[in-house]
Structure formats: C-alpha cells, structure tokens
Amino acid sequence: MWGYGRLARAQQLASTARIQVSARQPLLYAALAFAGGLWAGKHMWRPPNWWVIAALVFVCCAIYLLRRRKLVASALALGAVCAAGALTIQVRGSYSEEPPRLGNGEELVVIAHVIGEGDLKQDAPGSWHQRIDVETEKLEAESLSWETRAGVRLNTYLQQKSDSPNRVSMPLFRYGQRIRFPANLNPPRNFRNPGAFDYSGYLRDKGTSATASVKFNRLEVLPGFFRSRIEPWRTRIHRSIITKIHALWPEQAAGLMDAIVIGEETFIERSTRVDFQRSGTYHVLVVSGMNVSILALFTMWGLRRVGLGQVVASACAIILIMGYAALTNVGPPVWRAALMFAVYLATRLLYRDHAMLNALGAGGFALLIVDPQSLFGAVSK
C-alpha cells in the first residue's frame, strides 16, 4: 500500500507540473491549433456552418468542464481554436475581390501614374530599357472609357540607330508622374518548367494584375502629379542608399549589394542572376525574413550593449525593423517577418525570458490571423 501511495503521489505531481508548464505557454498551443485548423480547412472542405457549430460546442463544453477537468477543458478550447482556423481559411480563401476590368486583349490607351521607380539599362549601343510599376487611372478603348485601379508592370524601351541624326535620351520616370500610353494588358504568366519561379504569384502579392510593353516614343508624360505623403520620402531614401552603394563599390559588386541589403535587383546582370540560380544560392540575393532576423538580433544586441533597458531597446528595435521593411518594399515576406518580430518583442516584455515559447507562439498566432496563407507559402512558392 505504501508503494502504491508513493506512485499515486508521483503521478499527481507530474500531472500538476504538466498543467503549470502548459499554463506558461498557452499561446504556443493556440498557434499550433490554429495552424492545424488552417490546414484542415484548406484540405478538408466543410460548410462554414459546421465549423461555427463545432467551435461553439467546444467552447460550451470547455466552460462546463473548466472547474472539473482542466486538461480536458484546455483540449476542448484548443479544439475551438482549431475550428476557428478552419473557418478563417475557408471564408477568407473563398472571398476574392472583383478583378479589375482590363479589356479583352485588344490594345487600350492607358492613363496611369508611377508607383514603383525603375532604372535605365543599356542593352546595346543606342538601345535602352526601363521597367516601372504603374497604377491605372483610366482605360480607353475605341468607343469606351472607364476608370479602374490596377497595378501594371510596364516595360518601356528605346532603340536608335548609331547614325541617327535625332538622338533622343530616355528620362528616368519618378514616383507620382502621370503618363499615357497605348498597350495590350496581359495577365502575368509563369514558365511551365518544373520548379520554375512563381512569377505570377510574386506579382500578385505585390498587387500587380497585368504586364505591358510600350515603345518610348509612344509614351506621353501628362501634367499633374499623384501625391502621397509617405511614399515620396521612402522612394527618395531608397534611391539615396542605392546611390551611396554605387559610389562605394564597383558596378558588379554594387548590384549584388543592392539586392542583398535593400532588395533592389535592377542592377544585377543576367549572367550573374543565372549563375546564382544554377548554384541554388539565389535566395542570398533576395531580402526575406532571414535579413530581418539578422538585423533584429544585431540591433537588440547593440542596444543592450550601450546600456538601454529592455523596454527602450525593444521599442527602438521595432521601429527600426518596421522602417527597414517599408524601405525595402519587397512585399509580404519581409512584412510577415517584421510583424512576427514586433509581436515577439511585445509579448516578451509581458512574459519575460522564462516564457520564450509563449512569445513565439503569440507572434506566430498574430501572423496567421493577419495572413493565413503564410502557413502554405513555403510549399506553394
């Protein structure tokens, strides 16, 4: 009997310890349950009402058993979170904005403004090329015209003979300039090679709905300027950093530094790009969550070394990381990493160092709520 009593006591202590450990990191388990629900909702479709009813049943049972069976109540609460995740991916996945009306493949006259600056590239003597991102304001067909907002990646080129008496120079289009040009707007397409880059998905994440090409002599600069309070400042700082990099390094090395530091791939030569792709190291040239993590770690380490407190260092680090994400303008990968880092630091102040898994769970949970598709990004892209 005495041995049996010791065994029962040990089991009770172990159960209590498990409850205490779980109580210190509830958001980690909530994030895992929500991720499981996202996966279930994506691969096992059920009517949304089913998930709502399941979540309500789980919540009611958890409340009823809260005082009697804490472990069972916790498991039921996680079941409700899982059902909420399945409902989220199905509702948000089935909802899609109405695609912009871009014509039926015929040539349109496009009035737009520049939202993403490019850089001039000389392909050959007398041949220049420039790629910019624009947002449409108005589209005109033969007898119709309509206003629409759609992102377009525009390629404009200029070819001149070496003996041409009237040589024209292509200007660099700046953010906010309004332009007018005729073009065929085509949806982005991917190469059908196995393992090819998802170019269409990449442009879709950046809000680009179509691609177009136009000769420079058919493009007209319109009066007026599209104004934004923040974007001109961001563009100016972005370009000043690129100018400084090209002043410090040779042209080929500067192109690589642009891509690694600030996500600017304009100056990477095609041969260099192909070499990195063939060697499987092209990810080095892409600003992603890895860059944000490295910058965040060194920022926190440096701020703590100079004597700043935990709260001040965390606030400064969050501001710096968010500013870096806005400056690179790469898109969702960097913003996801910046958001997760900000949430992690904020929750770390609440739970301190002894509950790091809980802070990570809070960051992951917030990330999945804001962008449920991020769970499947590594697989689909």
Please describe what this structure looks like.
Strands 1, 2, 3, 4, 5, 6, 7 and 8 form an 8-stranded mixed sheet that branches. This protein has helices spanning 2-24, 26-43, 48-64, 70-94, 199-205, 231-248, 251-262, 270-279, 289-305, 310-328, 332-351, 356-370, 377-380, and strands at residues 108-116, 121-124, 127-140, 145-147, 151-159, 177-183, 208-215, 220-225. The chain contains 13 helices and 8 strands. With 381 residues, it is an alpha+beta fold. Helix 6 packs antiparallel against helix 7 (251-262), helix 9 packs antiparallel against helix 10 and helix 9 runs parallel beside helix 11.
How would you summarize this macromolecular structure in one to three sentences?
Helices cover 54% and strands 16% of the residues. The protein is of the alpha+beta class and 381 residues long. The protein has 4 domains: 15-94; 108-227, OB fold (Dihydrolipoamide Acetyltransferase, E2P) (Beta Barrel), CATH 2.40.50; 232-285, no CATH class; 289-380, no CATH class.
